[in-house]
Amino acid sequence: MDRLWTNARIATLTGDGLGLVEHGAIGVADGRIAWVGDAADAPVATDTIDCEGRLITPGLIDCHTHLVHGGSRANEWAMRLEGATYEEIARAGGGIVSTMRATREMDEAGLVATALPRLDALIAEGVTTIEIKSGYGLTLDDEIKMLRAARALGQARRVRVVATLLAAHAVPPEYWDDADAYVDLVCDRIIPAAAGLADAVDGFCEGIGFTPGQIARVFDAAKAAGLPVKLHAEQLSHLAGASLAASYHALSADHLEHINDADVAAMAEAGTVAVLLPGAFYFMRETHKPPVAALREAGVSMALATDCNPGTSPTTSLLLMLNMGATLFGLSVTECLRAVTVNAARALGLHGDVGTLEVGKAADLAIWNSTEPAELVYRIGFNPLCTRIKDGTCI
Ligand code: DI6
Ligand code: FE
After folding, report:
1. Is 315 in contact with 279 (CB distance < 8 Å)?
2. For residue 387, how far is the Cα from the chain centroid?
3. Span from the CA of 213 to the centroid of ligand 1 (angstroms)
4. Inter-residue contact 354 to 301 (CB < 8 Å)
5. Does 205 sit in the ligand 1 pocket, CB within 6 Å?
6. pTM given for the model
7. What sections of 108-139 are H helices per DSSP?
C-alpha cells in the first residue's frame, strides 16, 4: 500500500447514514482505496500520515454547474432588485440569451480562462468531481466549443469533470419564430456531434424553456446516441417535467420546487435522483420550496449542487449549499453530506467509482480541520478544509 492516513474520524458515507469509523484509517494504492477500517487493524504502508483525529469524508461532488460561460449578468440582477422579473428580462432578450451572446464571442481558451477562478474556488472547498454543462452557445459549433472547454478544465486541474450537453437550454433568437426547428437542430445535429464529448444530455423544461413534448424529442435523440439524460424540471412552474424525466430513467431531475406527489412517486420508482439547488431558490427569492419531506418519505435520493451560473445562482461555494440545504430546505446534516457525496455521484452515474470511501473506489478524499460532520453544514462562509486528495495525491 502506497499511503495510509490514520488516526482519523472517517465518514465513509456507506449504508444509509454517514458510515462513521471512529478511530479509523484509510489506505491507498495506485490512486484507489485499498483499505478502510479501524486504525488498530491497519496494514503497513510505505508512507503513513497521522490525521490527528481530523474528519475525513469523500471528496465533494458538485453535480450541477454552468461553470463555463461568458460575461456577467450583474446588471440584470440590479434590474431585478428594482422589480423586473427573470421572465420579463428573458422575454426582452436578456437572461440566458445575453450570456449566449457573450459565450459565442469568446473562444475556447477564453471560456477556460474565465472558468478557472470559479473552478479553483470549488476545489479550495474540497470538490474533487464537478459536472459542467454547455447551454450558452446554442449553435452546433458553440455547444461543442463549450463541451471542449469543460473537458480542458479537467486537464488544467486535478479534478474529475463530467460534461453535460444542455443545448436545450433556451431557444436562440434566430429560431424564435420556429422553436421546433431549433429542437430539430439539437436532435438531428448537435446531439450526434456531441456524443463523443458529452457524458449526458440535459434540458430546461419550463414555460420560458422547452415543452415536455420538445424535451421528449431531445431525450429520444439522446437515447439513440447512447447518452443518459437529466432535466431542469419544475423550477418555476409545474409541467410534469420530473415525471417525464423519470419515464426515461433520467439520472436526475433538478430544481423541483414545483413537483407534485405523482412526480415524486415516478422519481422513486425510476431511481431518479432529486438534485436540489438552494442557491437558485435563494438568489431568485423564491418562496415555493421543493417537497423535501415527500421526497424523503418516498426514498428519493437527494443531492445538493451550486447550479453555478450567471443568471440564477452565481455562487461557487458548495459548502454554502450544505448550509442552505439544511437552513432553507430542512435537510439533516447526514442528508446534506450524502447530498454532495454518494447521492451526487449517483446523479452523475458515477456511484460505482466515487462518492463513498470503499475499497476499489477512487481515492478522492477531503480531510477537514474538525472532528464534527455538522461543522461542514453549520458554518456560513467558512472553509474548514485541511487537505484535498485526488486519486491518492494531496493537492
Ligand atoms: N435554470 C436555471 O436556473 C439556469 N438555467 C436553467 O435552466 C439559469 C441560467 C441563466 O439564467 O443563465
Ligand atoms: Fe442549472
Report:
1. yes
2. 22
3. 20
4. no
5. no
6. 0.97
7. 108-123
**And the C-alpha cell for 230?**
437529466
Residues 227-247 as b/e (b if ≥16 CB within 10 A, e otherwise) read bbbbbbbbbbeebbbbbbbbe
Task: Report the pLDDT averaged over residues 93-115.
Answer: 95
Q: Nearest ligand, CA of residue 69?
A: 1
Distance CA 197, CA 285 (A): 35
CB 133 near ligand 1, within 6 Å: no
pLDDT band at 208 (very low <50, low <70, confident <90, very high): confident
Region class of 392: left (phi > 0), else alpha (psi between -120 and 50), else beta: left
What is the per-residue pLDDT for 54?
98
Q: Report pLDDT digits (tens) over 149-195.
A: 999 999 999 999 999 999 999 999 999 999 999 999 999 999 999 99
For 300-316, write each residue's pLDDT tens digit. Answer: 999 999 999 999 999 99
- Orientation of helix 96-105 relative to helix 140-156, angle to 10°: 70
Q: Which three cell numbers stand for residue 261?
A: 406527489
How many residues are given for the chain? 395
Q: What angle do CA 223, 225, 226 make, to 5 degrees?
A: 65
Query: pLDDT > 90: what percent of the chain?
Result: 93
> How far does CA 9 lie from the centroid of its chain?
26
Residue 323 Cβ contacting ligand 1 at under 6 Å: no
> CA–CA separation, 34 vs 364, rounded Å?
12
Residue 111 has a pLDDT of 98
DSSP-assigned beta bridge partners for residue 5 = 26, 49
Please name the residue whose Cα sits nearest to atom 10 of ligand 1.
311
Q: Find the DSSP H helices in the chain.
A: 74-81, 86-91, 96-105, 108-123, 140-156, 179-185, 191-194, 212-224, 241-247, 261-270, 278-283, 292-298, 318-327, 333-339, 342-347, 375-378
Q: Is the pLDDT of residue 1 over 90?
A: no
Contact assessment for residue 167 and residue 202, using Cβ atoms and an 8 Å cutoff: no
Q: CA-CA distance, 292 to 284, in Å (whole number)?
A: 19
